[in-house]
Amino acid sequence: MLHRLLIVGAALCVFAFVSAPDEASAQFRIGPHIGYNFDGERLFAGADAWIGITSLAPTIELHGNVGASYYFVEDVTFFRFDVNLPFLFDVGTPIVKPYVAPGLALAYVSVDTPLGDISDTDVAANVIGGGLFLPDEMINPFAQLRISFGDWDDTFELMGGAMFKF
Questions:
Q1: Nearest to 109 by CA among 97, 123, 95
Q2: Sign of CA dihedral 86, 55, 47, 137
């Protein structure tokens, strides 16, 4: 059942990325992030790209977000790829735009053992909440909480970074 929901979610993400553009689509941001996974007690780093898709209302923008993260785990290769749909809310302040996002994650884990390489690929759903700071400037710091659940153990992560606006 979860796999069917993830497939439907992926199709909706693809549809949203190719939907008709408007003012929000002129926004493109890219930048690094660093974070901490509380459940596995490990650091990770990576990069994100955001693109504006559409304005749903005068105070709500829909964006597309793709990201990749590498987890620092001894003797293990662990990559994570995410596709999310952040909804940014204009709360009337030039300092922060809060956002929430549903999304999908794909994780690749590989362990080199004396018997050979053991690897696995898992899929999960994301629920994200955060804030994009100084949204009208060229550099936008951000902070977010991410909860993922699915094929792997549920995870709770805190991450932050900086997005460069083009």
A1: 123
A2: negative
Note the Cα 6 to chain centre separation in Å: 15
The residue assigned the tokens 């300092």 is: 95
What Å distances lie between residue 45 and 11, 29, 36, 159, CA to CA? 27, 17, 9, 9
Per-residue b/e over 13-24, b at no fewer than 16 CB within 10 Å? beeeeeeeeeeb
Global pTM reads 0.82
pLDDT exceeds cutoff 70 at 97: yes
* pLDDT single digits (tens) 139-164: 999 999 999 998 777 789 999 999 99
d(C-alpha 153, C-alpha 59), whole Å: 35
Q: How many CB atoms lie within 10 A of CB 78?
A: 18
